[in-house]
Specification:
The chain is α/β, with parallel strands linked by helices. The protein folds into two domains: 133 residues, Rossmann fold (3-Layer(aba) Sandwich), CATH 3.40.50.720; 106 residues, Alpha-Beta Complex (UDP-galactose 4-epimerase, domain 1). Helix content is 41%, strand content 17%. The strands form two sheets. It has an eight-stranded parallel β-sheet with strand order 3-2-1-4-5-6-8-10, with helices on both faces. A two-stranded parallel ribbon has the order 7-9. The longest helix is centred in the last third of the chain and has 15 residues. GO terms for molecular function: oxidoreductase activity. Pathway: Alkaloid biosynthesis; ergot alkaloid biosynthesis. This is NmrA-like domain-containing protein. It holds the Pfam family NmrA.
Length: 284
């Protein structure tokens, strides 16, 4: 089966593409830099915000006498995601795509922007689809606003207080996406993707302390303090407000609550294993 992975050079897309290849599928990967894609993956130059590229994956498949039957959807980081994904979904159905797997987020429900609006559209089309709603990624500890304080100040900064998060590995998200794309039928259209344990930032700081061999502290800040922290690490003001608000959701039990729901896929990889595997990243 020919499968299209959008965001194919991203955290989950890279891992998913390799799983699909190993299972014998023909895999098309969209990217703005085709030279990043190595054979036997098939790279396709594509940009969500450039409408002239939206049919490129289907042209590439046709040139190989193939038809794309399933698509992994990872939208661009814009507020009105539906404005670019929904027309693409229409085109994909016209070209013969039979299944969609949409990457969303744990706190985004159907109808909520940005990804939930796309989910709602897939629902109205009565498409064969699954929405994956992962909790917070292990890999977040490698992005600047977490990585720099860890390395330079021996701190983890958050407004999440003692809220607990079921941290999830990108590899586990890729496993869930693989299952949704390739199974005979989708059993759950709205699937939460969570890690195997709930952790506070105090517990995570203790893990880093153990692995790195130096004291790592959890710096508690207010929601406004978190916004300022994010601004210092070059986040756009609108994004800082959204991310600091997510900390408040964690602080009030929002992420712990999703862990208790039934419609979930529970990953097997732990955050401690991730920290151990990536130890060199935080050594100064």
């Amino acid at each position: 089966m020919a499968i299209l992975v959008t965001g194919g050079t991203g955290k989950t897309g890279t891992r998913l593409a390799q799983l699909l290849l190993a299972a014998g599928h023909s895999v098309y990967v969209t990217t703005r830099s085709v030279d990043k894609v190595q054979s036997p993956l098939k790279g396709v130059k594509f940009d969500w915000l450039d409408s002239s590229t939206k049919d490129a994956p289907f042209k590439a498949a046709a040139a190989n006498n193939e038809q794309i039957e399933a698509v992994y959807l990872v939208g661009p980081p814009i507020a009105d995601m539906a404005s670019v994904l929904n027309p693409f979904i229409d085109l994909a159905i016209e070209k013969g795509v039979k299944r969609f797997v949409l990457l969303s987020a744990s706190q985004v429900t159907k109808g909520q922007p940005p990804m939930g609006v796309v989910q709602e559209y897939l629902d109205t089309l009565k498409a064969d689809y699954c929405t994956l709603r992962p909790s917070w990624f292990h890999e977040n500890f490698l992005v600047p606003h977490n990585f720099r304080p860890l390395v330079n100040e021996d701190q983890i900064v958050s407004a999440a207080e003692d809220g607990r998060i079921p941290w999830i590995s990108s590899d586990d998200i890729a496993d869930a996406a693989f299952n949704a794309l390739t199974s005979e039928q989708i059993e759950e259209r709205d699937l939460l993707v969570v890690g195997p344990e709930l952790l506070t930032y105090e517990q995570i700081a203790a893990m880093f302390t153990e692995v790195l061999g130096r004291k790592i502290s959890f710096k508690r800040v207010s929601q406004e303090g978190m916004s300022q922290h994010l601004l210092q690490h070059e986040f756009h003001p609108g994004v800082t407000e959204m991310l600091s608000a997510l900390d408040l959701i964690v602080a009030t039990g929002g992420e712990e609550a999703i862990y208790k729901l039934e419609n979930k896929y529970v990953g097997k990889r732990t955050l401690l294993d991730f920290i151990r595997a990536n130890k060199e990243a935080w050594i100064r």
